[in-house]
Amino acid sequence: MKRRVVQIAPGLNPGDAITNEIFLIHEQILANRGSHGFDQSAVVAEHIHPDLSKKAFLAEKFQPRAHDLIVFHFGVAANIVDRLLQWPNRRILVYHNVTPPEFFLPYSLRVAGRLARARQLLFELRSFFEFCIADSAFNARELERYGFADVRTLPVLFESNRSRPAPAVPWISAQDRYILFVGRLAPNKRHADLIKVMRCLVDFGSELKLVIAGGVFSEMHLYLRELQELTRHLGLEDRVVFTGHVSEDQLAALYGRAELFLSMSAHEGFCVPLLEAMAYDIPVLARGDAGSAVLETMDGAGIVFNTTDHLRIAALVAEVLSQPDYIARILENQRARLSRYDRRMVGTELVRMLDELFADDSTNSTRGRHAELMG
Comparing C-alpha atoms, which of 260, 265, 117, 289 is closest to residue 193? Predict the structure, then answer.
């Protein structure tokens, strides 16, 4: 009997943290087939970027096998939910957080509506999963508030690209010194605050640039235009760079030469770029409010602040970059933080959880017979 782990997501896009995690699980964590309670793995999504089309199945054409275990990655409303709940297969939920819809209301009613629907779905899904995995304690608490009973916590799986070649990139010259932020262009990331901090740094006499690396999906073009207009209004056209989507090699190059990583994001369920920047030995400064998992992800490393005072943050950036000893202490703390992140342990624990369900499935013959009839 073939036992298969099937990961399902609303969408798959290159460079997206959830997509990256799904394929890390598929290609590395579950790759040693035959040594666990399962011997196959598959990825399914409603929307698949053309670059990933040969690595996943389209949801509309997918029908599970009788003994498939469904692992549903949840972060936004998805049409496949209705079909998924009709399948008799065992299933678990991996929760990546749903961004509060109010961040998107000024820019896209459709996106805000999908996010509002996703939060409503959480109430409806409470009794349909064997257990849930949250990628931060912040997300776990949110699931519990929605009424989920068996919630387990495992950090996001990510892979540092530090070993990748660092090609020349078109946005900066070899002489440029810059602050970096990595993340999709979404309003909760508070890119406008980054730009205003940059204005203060320029007023201090700094020659730094600000590089904002991240793709923009079609419904966020109004948000991008707003940021571009702010950049022009503040006279920073030659100091602020919007890269759009970057390849993995280009991202490695941007991380590899950055002076500092600065995040002003107001809401995060985990925020993988914070740890990616640490892996490149870049000092990380991040806003860490109570409504975000940033404090948890930083875990005592880098510098966390809870102000949006652009002048004070610019002064902090300037202070850090002017003191090599200060930077050395920050980097030492960040290396210690990374040492507490054990990807092997995360993968091992995930496999243990999946094995637990497959072992239990052998005693669940009624479910299995029903699944065979349906499949």
Answer: 265
* pLDDT tens for the 375 residues of the chain, in order: 568 899 999 999 888 889 999 999 998 888 765 556 677 889 999 999 999 999 999 998 899 988 899 999 998 888 889 888 889 999 999 999 999 999 999 999 999 999 999 999 998 898 899 999 999 999 999 999 999 999 999 998 888 766 656 677 889 998 999 999 999 999 999 999 999 999 999 999 999 999 999 988 878 999 999 999 999 999 999 999 999 999 888 999 999 999 999 999 999 999 999 999 999 999 999 999 888 999 999 999 999 999 999 999 999 999 999 999 999 999 999 999 999 888 888 888 998 888 888 776 654 533 433 333 233
DSSP letter for 231, please: H
Is 25 in contact with 157 (CB distance < 8 Å)? yes
- Helix or strand run (H / E) with residue 253: helix 248-257
Ramachandran assignment for 110, one of left (phi > 0), alpha (psi -120 to 50 degrees), beta (any other):
alpha
Both 19 and 132 in one domain: the answer is yes
Q: Which domain holds residue 357?
A: 4-155+342-374
Cβ 238 vs Cβ 207: under 8 Å? no
For residue 160, being part of any structural domain is answered with no
CATH label of the domain that carries residue 36: 3.40.50.2000
Q: How many domains, the chain? A: 2
Phi, psi of 194 (to 5 degrees): -60, -45
In 3D space, the residue among 180, 173, 157 whose CA is nearest the CA of residue 73 turns out to be 157
Query: Is 80 among the domain residues?
Result: yes
**CB neighbours of 88 closer than 8 A, spacing ≥ 6?**
367, 370, 371, 374
- Provide the 10 A C-beta neighbour count for residue 149: 11
Instruction: Determine the Cα angle at 315 with ends 314 and 317, to 5°.
Output: 65
